[in-house]
Amino acid sequence: MERKRIDALFAIEREANGLPADERLAIRREQSLPLLVDLESWMRTERARLSRHADTAKAMDYMLTKWDACARFGTDGRICLSNNAAERALRGIALGRRSRSFASL
Description:
Elements: H1 2-16, H2 21-49, H3 55-65, H4 67-71, H5 84-103
């Protein structure tokens, strides 16, 4: 169920991709923020039912402690939902560094 909600957030972002920040923010306020509110509520409810040692509980604890940062994209049209673009940009640097380490052998 909750994966569908997260998938819906990414679907909204795909539709808003390429729009100016103010238009993206309007879409997020209308469509994404209600999903975020529901997701946080669900996570807090489900987390209370889990043992603190469960792997799922640890993942939920991590996300809930970082919730403000995770949900910030919903209040700022300039912020991306994911950091995939940044990771792609840095991938070449990381691969180059790895290749150079073998060249010195």
